[in-house]
Design a protein that fits this description.
This protein is of the alpha/beta class. It has twelve helices and 24 strands. The protein has three domains: 158 residues, 3-Layer(bba) Sandwich (FAD/NAD(P)-binding domain); 112 residues, FAD/NAD(P)-binding domain (3-Layer(bba) Sandwich), CATH 3.50.50.60; 125 residues, FAD/NAD(P)-binding domain (3-Layer(bba) Sandwich). A hairpin with a 2-residue loop joins strand 20 and strand 21. It is globular.
Length: 447
């Protein structure tokens, strides 16, 4: 068995490791266009800020790992085309083309950066690779101000990273709120207020008209005005990298990712796909979605690699749970926001509450806000959003399990939890109190 894998980051290396575990004798090769394989893209903003002291620390495996696992890793090698009939992959290395035979192939081609079609945006820096991160670090050393274009998760993390390096930061988001794919507007306002307290200027409802480079800075013209900055960074999102799949005639799904079945098999029998380039199914709606998170990448890679090597595994439906740390503030989400649920045709009811992470009188007690969203038809939990200063991740993990367990507002309101003043309140804000606020809404409407 000869297994080829295109891409060697989270999904690709996960696929390779799973394939090797399922077939000790298979020949496995990995094709990666970058100079470095299998590193944490999620860690790039933290290396820019200096919290991670060296970009090399983001590399997951040393070269010896690939030898140990008998993986033929080909760096600086670009996959050009797939010959389905002959089962050949055409690659290019240092200007020369080569054909690699395969029995089965895994596409882990990731995503491409999306840049707004504004004049002068080619002057902006992007963050996708270690090389990008090093370039931004070098530019930041010679800068005193930066404009971040895009208020999604990467834009927010970049704003924080550069603010920690001492730059004056302005963040521009075309929609009326920041984190539009993660938070509802009420929770986004809480997060925005916290970031503004740390001297990050946030301009929502603003679009870039053009960027013009001047002697020592750039002039950024917006729909709402203009500003100057030494450094411009585009954080306007990513799109699935499906060019290779399209040219080979593979089916592309309605979300724009590569269509796969539950075993992550594409529309061609011996070709699998994993990571940011595929579309998965949402756990709540059953509809196709993109799940461009590290957790989905490693899980889908394992499934694709297992099946490519003759094993059997299926990919579960996803909730797109995510968490981030922005200065001292932690923000976490799972499931659908209120607005996302309503776009999918669900009628919802939500409750939002603020509280403390431990007894208010106990030293070190932190603020926390939680929003729970329920399907009004059956009162099952469909989404949760939490903003706080500690232990947001485990609360989101707990609520993710509650969604997958089909728990209702009454289940959460009656949940048994622990209490001791140094660690927790008697009533957990992300369970009891947010649920009680929903039950109060229901009671008031009946009256």
């Amino acid at each position: 068995m000869r297994i080829g894998i295109i891409g060697c980051n989270a999904a690709g290396i996960s696929a390779a490791s799973a394939a090797r575990k399922n077939d000790r004798k298979a020949e496995i090769f990995l094709v990666e266009s970058e100079e470095v394989a299998a590193y944490s893209r999620c860690g790039l903003p933290h290396a820019i800020s200096g919290e991670v002291t060296d970009f090399a620390n983001l590399i997951v495996f040393p070269r010896s790992y690939y030898k140990l696992m008998r993986l033929d890793l080909r760096l600086r090698t670009t996959a050009k085309s797939i010959d389905l009939k002959e089962k050949r992959l055409v690659v290019e290395y240092e200007g020369k083309e080569e054909c690699l035979q395969f029995d089965r192939l895994v596409l882990a081609t990731g995503s491409n950066l999306f840049s707004p079609p504004a004049r002068g945006m080619e002057l902006a820096y992007h963050l996708r690779t270690i090389a990008d991160g090093k370039g931004i670090c070098a530019a930041a050393e010679a800068s005193s101000s930066a404009v971040i274009v895009g208020g999604g998760l990467i834009g927010l993390e970049m704003a924080v990273a550069l603010r920690q390096k001492g730059l004056k930061i302005s963040l521009v988001e075309m929609l009326p709120q920041i984190a539009p794919n993660m938070l509802d507007s009420d929770m986004a306002q809480i997060l925005q207020g916290r970031l503004e307290q740390r001297d990050i200027e946030i301009l929502t409802g603003s679009t870039i008209q053009y960027v013009q480079r001047e002697a020592k800075s750039s002039n950024i013209v917006l729909s709402t005005g203009s500003m100057k900055a030494d450094l411009v960074i585009a954080a306007t999102g990513i799109r699935p990298n499906t060019e290779l799949a399209r040219s080979a005639g593979l089916r592309i799904g309605e979300s724009g990712g590569i269509w796969v079945n539950p075993r992550l098999q594409t529309s061609v029998e011996d070709i699998y796909a994993a990571g940011e380039c595929v579309e998965l199914l949402n756990f709540i709606t059953g509809r196709p979605v993109l799940s461009q998170f590290g957790t989905s990448a490693v899980r889908s890679g394992r499934v694709a690699g297992t099946n490519a090597a003759g094993g059997y595994a299926t990919m579960p439906r996803v909730l797109n749970s995510a968490v981030s740390k922005l200065f001292e503030t932690q923000v976490g989400v799972t499931g659908l926001t209120e607005s996302q649920a309503e776009k999918q045709g669900l009628t919802t009811i939500s409750g939002i509450m603020g509280g403390k992470t431990k007894a208010p009188y106990y030293p070190g007690s932190k603020n926390i806000f939680a929003k729970l969203t329920f399907n009004r038809e059956n009162m099952k939990l469909v989404g949760a959003q939490i903003i706080g200063e500690e232990e947001v991740t485990q609360r989101i993990n707990m609520l993710s399990m509650a969604i997958k367990g089909g728990m209702t507002v009454w289940d959460l309101e009656l949940a048994e939890t622990c209490y001791t003043p140094p660690l927790a309140e008697p009533w957990e804000v992300s369970l009891h109190e947010a649920s009680q606020s929903v039950l109060a809404k229901m009671k008031n409407r009946k009256n």
